Amino acid sequence: MKAIIVGLGNPTEEYIGTRHNVGRDFLIALAKKEGIDTWKKDMKLRALTASGDFLGGKAQLVLPEMYMNLSGGSLKPLIDSKKKLETLVVIHDELDLPLGKVKLSYGSGHGGHKGIESIQKALKSKDFLRIRVGISPSTASGKLRKPDSEKIVDFVIGAFRKPEEEILKKVRKVVAAALEAFMEGGRAQATMEINSR
Prior knowledge:
This protein is of the alpha/beta class. It has a single domain (2-195), classed as Rossmann fold (3-Layer(aba) Sandwich). The chain has helices at residues 22-33, 72-75, 82-85, 114-123, 152-156, 162-195, and strands spanning 2-7, 40-42, 47-54, 57-64, 88-98, 102-106, 129-136. A seven-stranded mixed sheet has the order 2-3-4-1-5-7-6. The radius of gyration is 16 Å and the shape is globular. It starts with a strand and ends with a helix.
């Protein structure tokens, strides 16, 4: 199986290191660690792509070069069958999870995430694996403290603070473990391994 792995984010430089770009930034970092650092502009997909050996399997990596809420446009020409849909993994930020938490989902709604909403509309399906990376603050007891609705946009396009970046290093390892498990045993194995942590 050749996996199609997508990192969601906004393409321009000012968004690097922001909460909304965690999917894109993680995929670039993990690819570099695996020796993949050459990305090609694919005009048909309107995305940057790279292919090769990745975390124990073969993968096509995709970074949409459109803004988050248009992400589906990059995937529509690529995912043209149910078989390809089964190989799709999308990494994205998740307001409904605290920073430090990673959860895998399949077949669920977009939960207000504009990038996921765009992909689901473009593919006319919810049936793909999502690696949801928590970005919200939490209390000492672990209770989620999502920002107020009027502050959400500023929060998600804001940069991670230094202490948060330290947490992200550990989170990136969890995301790598999820992708490795997916490559080895598919969606069920990846979901069981990560969601039971």
